[in-house]
Specification:
homodimer, about 400 residues, alpha+beta, Phosphoribosyl-aminoimidazole Synthetase, Chain A, domain 2, 6-stranded mixed β-sheet, 10 helices, 11 strands, kinase (chains A, B)
């Protein structure tokens, strides 16, 4: 569980080589603001002008007049009927700049995040992945020849873990290092869960803790005395390193089992939590519901001590408001109330990770909110020597 | 046919706004050197260690022991059997930096180029496209709000022309503007032409003229007196502008009809000509043949006057050597000798564009070459007032 950090010296690289320096923007910085994205994508919209997704994955519901379930721009993945055999194409693409310093783990995270969008639609058998790569023109040749194969290896091994392979892609040069990909599943209709069937009385389950961006930022601040001085009174260096490890572990973890269990426990809708944070994605999912419902979130499971950091920064991250960006976050699953506990328990049994009931589905106008004083769940509740979770 | 240039002043942008300035690298500059790519991709390879494609599209033949045609890393698109109905997934991805100044045309070119890889496998019904976009952080908000929708419009209209739609993608911010996408077709086996069946006596057909990179570069030199002075004795400004228009028109043109006619005329193999130039792609295609053949190229159809510029630059482009990069180039199709003329004639009849028999398939060791003094075919042979071709 505990993995050794990537150490540049192990590879005869300069001690101050940092993968995360191969991009000038951090966290949400690389995101196009939501309203701008909205305007940009207007040209791609179908006549019914649906909402948009998380900016990374601009897919959305198509006109309801279509006879078969079709999801276009606005949700996590598109779901498109194809010409053959009543089958559907479920696919998504995303690409990222480095947000952790370990190239192998960065490759895994990128792959897990791309797959997550397809898993959010209930599709668990991915037929193919393509990889999008860009070396950075700020890397030396030596750095490139060491770092890029590690990223590729992480991406490939994550794809294999997901039971799929990488059979194509593109590699170019860019100022910032880019890693991303495309995931494609060709599915029968019953392999897909169109995320629009939440009903009053359902509950919301989250399958990974929040706080990845806070953990990643805090870890970068260890090398930035100005920033570190602002939080060092509330957290130890060791706790930051542990939170960073937890964030990496969580981001590299596949949402495949969570997706697979959605079928067993009759999930009514799902999205994955990424760039727009828990609330942003909850709102987007709510907007696409068929019934007059709204989502109310009571609990926030957060990587241990990240809530403390967020408060010490004057809530600049928006973590407690549900707007802190996550990378490769958990599935936010809408489940029948009587199935939710069993769903969480099954994930725990199969993967050894907790999942949490975090909210309820009420009657409402297709919106989502977090209650005024949500309960913060520290994850894990207690440190166990030598173990991450 | 003749389209008005994009003029920044028409959109109240600064007169010196140039889309092509939103990347510091031109032409092949953004390509990872072939040997480096080779090393990088080793980690993705299957056991049989096949060759690699054009660097943009690193797909290739899988082990022959597989019962069904499977193409992985090394050719233009991957071809992968899926779980359902004996169907195959054919897909490709590519992304580009601006190489022309007209944003609408740039969107079309990117789309046409992405589709071209799928067409090269004979697949003509594309089920879905995803779009990869990055705004440039060097653009003002105003530039972004004007330019990006034009790029999107071009991409979308090209996809519609191809009979498909854009149902997803990602948009981020990057130092250089990026536009690209993913094309996916789910096909029956007889919709695909696995490009490995060239036999001695076949001929090679090319469906678009060469010289796009030379035309694009020469056009940029109009604003660079140092460079312009080097070629102005051999070409007029007007001829450069016309060649640029021809290059844009050619790059934005779909290879769909050429692909469709491959079935009618029993093509034995095909690739599309992009980053590694005519010879690079011919060599890659030759390497993947089942029989002991080699490709010998006798004729080079080139956008009018671009051969002259290339010579005036001391062949720096490698145009006459077949190594000049092309963007969204033509299909290089291997056809039975008795079918080739009819194939070219049919393209002319359906599209109004010429195609050319440029070489022959001989007995050999799976290589390709251009003869010592190839015949240069100026395209078009004569200028017609008010017409491009």
């Amino acid at each position: 569980m505990y993995r050794k950090y990537f150490d540049p010296l192990d590879y005869n690289l300069s001690a101050d080589f940092r993968l995360t320096k191969l991009s000038d923007l951090k966290g949400r910085g690389c995101k196009v603001p939501r309203d701008v994205l909205h305007r940009l994508l207007e040209g791609l919209q179908t006549a019914d002008k649906n909402g948009y997704g998380d900016g990374q994955h601009h897919q959305g519901l198509m006109p309801e007049s279509k006879p078969t379930p079709v999801v276009g721009i606005g949700l996590d993945s598109c779901v498109i009927p194809i010409r053959h055999g009543g089958l559907f194409l479920v696919q998504s693409t995303a690409f990222f700049y480095p947000l952790v310093d370990d190239p192998y783990v960065m490759g895994k995270i990128a792959c897990a995040n791309v797959l997550s969008d397809v898993y959010a639609m209930g599709a668990v058998e991915v037929d193919n992945m393509l990889m999008l790569l860009s070396t950075s023109n700020k890397m030396t040749e030596k750095e490139r020849d060491i770092i890029m194969p590690l990223i590729l290896q992480g991406f490939k091994e994550c794809a294999e873990e997901a039971g799929t392979t990488v059979q194509g892609g593109q590699t170019v040069i860019n100022p910032w290092l880019i890693v991303g990909g495309v995931a494609t599943a060709v599915c029968t209709q019953n392999e897909i869960i169109i995320p629009e069937n939440a009903i009053v009385g359902d509950v919301l389950v989250l399958t990974k803790p929040l706080g990845t961006q806070v953990a990643v930022s805090a870890h970068q601040w260890l090398e930035n005395p100005d920033r570190w001085n602002r939080i060092k009174s509330v957290i130890s260096e060791d706790d930051v390193r542990k939170a960073y490890q937890r964030a990496m572990n969580s981001m590299a973890r596949l949402n495949k089992i969570g997706a697979s269990l959605m079928h067993k426990y009759n999930a009514h809708a799902c999205t994955d939590v990424t760039g727009f944070g828990l609330l942003g994605h909850a709102q987007n999912l709510a907007k696409h519901q068929k019934h007059d419902v709204s989502f109310v979130i009571h609990n926030l499971p957060i990587i241990a001590k990240m809530a403390t950091i967020s408060k010490a920064c004057g809530n600049a991250f928006g973590l407690l408001q549900g707007t802190s960006a996550e990378t490769s976050g958990g599935l936010l699953v809408v489940l029948p109330r009587e199935q939710a506990a069993a769903y969480c328990k099954d994930i725990q049994a199969q993967e050894g990770y907790q999942a949490w009931i975090i909210g309820v589905v009420e009657k409402g106008g297709r919106t989502a909110k977090i209650i005024d004083k949500p309960r913060i769940i520290e994850v894990p509740a207690k440190d166990t020597e030598g173990e991450l979770w």
